Amino acid sequence: MDNQRSDAADANLAIVRRVYEEGLNQGNFSLLDQLIDEKIEDHSLYPVRGSGRGAFVERFRSVRSAFPDANMTIEDGVATGDKVVCRWILRGTNTGPFASIPATGRHVVITGINISRVEGGRIVEHWASFDHLGMLQQLGVMSPYQQRPSQ
């Protein structure tokens, strides 16, 4: 029984790795139709609005558009049951607009952690947390020493 659980967890981790390594890094968005459930629940904060697979894929497209050389490396991946947790680093150069930020030409190194829930070979639920402040500072749109305005 434990080997079956381990095999399923390993298969789930492989699915998540493919989403980032082939889907995001290589821009293979058609792969996401196979690996992302149509009604995925995405609980992460991100500039693209909407729900379901279309919004999830649009998030990947917006990253690739803003950072065409984006490369996400999964530093650690742990799977148990239907959950996969990945600690990652994304490196890229901002040559296109991102959310409301015009292209800066700056290189960024962003760290984060994602949790995915996999059912039937597809990601059905997703949570993400990444260093938003560090990204904004690296893009030069927010100073690390910027203070709040007086009240």
Describe the model.
With 151 residues, the protein is α+β, with helices and mostly antiparallel strands. It has one domain: Nuclear Transport Factor 2, Chain: A (Roll), CATH 3.10.450.50. The chain has four helices and five strands. It has helices at residues 2-24, 29-35, 52-66, 132-139, and strands at residues 36-42, 71-80, 83-93, 107-119, 122-130. Strands 1-5-4-3-2 form a five-stranded mixed beta sheet. A hairpin with a 2-residue loop joins strand 2 (71-80) and strand 3 (83-93). Helix 1 (2-24) packs antiparallel against helix 2 (29-35). It starts with a helix and ends in a 12-residue tail after the last helix.
Please give the CATH class.
Alpha Beta
State the distance separating the first and last CA atoms: 61 Å
Number of strands: 5
Side-by-side strand order of the widest sheet: 1-5-4-3-2
Kindly state the mean pLDDT as a whole number?
Answer: 91
Question: Could you name the CATH topology?
Answer: Nuclear Transport Factor 2, Chain: A
> How many helices does DSSP assign?
4
Classify the secondary structure makeup into a structural class. Answer: alpha+beta
Helix percentage range: 25-40%
What percent strand? 25-35%
Shape: globular
Unreliable stretches covering 5 or more consecutive residues: none
- How many domain regions? 1
Global Rg: 17 Å
> How many strands, which pairing sense, and closed or not: the largest β-sheet?
5 strands, mixed
If classified by CATH, what would the architecture be?
Roll
Task: Please write the string of helix (H) and strand (E) elements.
Answer: HHEHEEEEH
